[in-house]
Amino acid sequence: MTSKPAPPDLSGSRPRLRRERRVHRLFWAAALTSILISILIIGSLVGEAWNFISTVNLSSLWTDGWFPRRGMFDLKTVITGTLLIAGVAMIVATPLGLGAAIYLSEYANPRARRLLKPIIEVLAGIPSVVLGYFALTWISPNIVQKISNAGVFSMAAAGIGVGILTVPLVASVSEDAMRAVPHALREASYALGAKKHATVTRVVFPAAISGIAASLILGVSRAIGETMVVAMAAGAVGGSLFEWNIFEPGQTMTAAMTSVAIGSDQVAGAGNAFQSMYFLGLLLFLMTLTLNLASDRFVRRVREKY
Amino acid sequence: MVSRTKTLSATDVVQQTLRGRRYDLRAAAFPTALLATLLISLLFLAVLLIDIITDAWSVLSTRGLDFVSSPLSLSAESAGVWQGIVGSLMLAVVVALFSFPIGIGAAIYLEEYAPDNRFTRFINTNIRNLAGVPSIVYGLLGFTIFVGLMKLVGLEGGHAGKNVIAGGLTLASLVLPIVIITTAEALRAVPDSIREAGFAVGATRWEVIRHHIIPSAAPGILTGTVLTLARAFGETAPLLLVGAATGFFSTGNAGFLQKLTGAYTALPVTIFSWSRQPGADFRALTAAAIVVLLAVLLTANATAIILRNRFERKW
Question: ipTM of this predicted complex?
């Protein structure tokens, strides 16, 4: 009588499987860290921001200016300043960023691309504190003061500085969007007799419009959150009256937070100036989150289409 | 044979185009204008470098290496960036220790292990959003959580927990999403055939990852991490909130642990605080410190590009 051999055990060695599970759990935990950081950010912002809102005199959120040490927390001052500087930044970054993106994606041959692309990459690597210095010592006297009678510090100078910082982001995201447009579309356009110029403006650009919109939204989000250029070049270190003229000094949410932070030792007894930093932080977080989610949606639309 | 009506038929348009002027001004002006926008960016970059180097020249030419090796000082003649460089390097070490293992691990999970379900998509969206959170908000996170953590674990030091470790952890959280995104991209570039070949000869998932995927993706991962360190090296705003010293301080001959938990500064923070000082001599100092910072960053970027060019594999 022949006994059948027992089927081989294919489950592998136990220690090997145990190690496998351990590694899996370790990587899973690493991925969860990103969620933990989000929770910690929201947690640290909400707590102190709530302290601020519940103790502050609500009428002080709508007065003549932003002077945290005097208990004046005028939100329209810092929000207007933020939006004005972001506006100036986008006036600079939209043409420079989109122009670079269209040229690199549609016109530059591989050699020109290898030569020109690093301009954008080097620009992306310049720290914002360096651009802050540049905005203060060069952009302000050589551009802003030439076209207006602004002082050394102005929202326009800061805005141009922030704009230069935003160019690489707008350029790279919209270049990706245009390179994702399939060649068949361009070829179809040429087959109809369209010239390069018409193909680029009437076919490629509209096809990539979601991605281009996403790049501009991301640019605005970046410009709103930019801190050092504004803190160095926009003036208004301690506080600012409500101001809508871009050739005057102004205060943004980020610069207001920085000035509270630098002077935090003097703030200890100054009412809730310290908590105002968290309130602004939460506001900033929510604004950029909304913009980022919107741009994410646009980018996904491009990806689904092609 | 000019038609009287203003509307042109398709045939007319085609005929006109075929016969018409060969030189279309608008079509020629368009790429020129596009190239001009790139050249304006280049011009800004060139002016920035020239402006800073001219401003810095008086300091760099007269003091040279003495400027790099001198500590902070209240007098402009003897002030240097040594403490800033040391602080930035220590921060970079903390950033590397925390953000690289966690970031690379998270990317491996998301690319190699995670099932494609709602939870994974949520993590991915969350990471992309974290990458867009303004850096100063991370400063608030660091001040609330990490400085508090320092007090909790007894590393409070002489500076109320505002030390290099808290600053480094803050910057590590700031760059973590970037590490994850660049690593995930490098992993995605490794073709599936490599994975399948590994599984086919009986390797487990971790063995495939360790012996095949990570070595294949290493150049991409390395480039990403170097660029990330450069990003952390130039970051200023969060450190202002986590208590990097904006004024003069001296570490004297404190022990290692005291240095680690005491007052600190970073090169970009030094630049910021000098730029707020009045007077031409501090302006020159600021510019000189910027030259040092840019030299470090350009070296890092060049290293990353060389690494990528030398080791990158096209599949």
Answer: 0.90
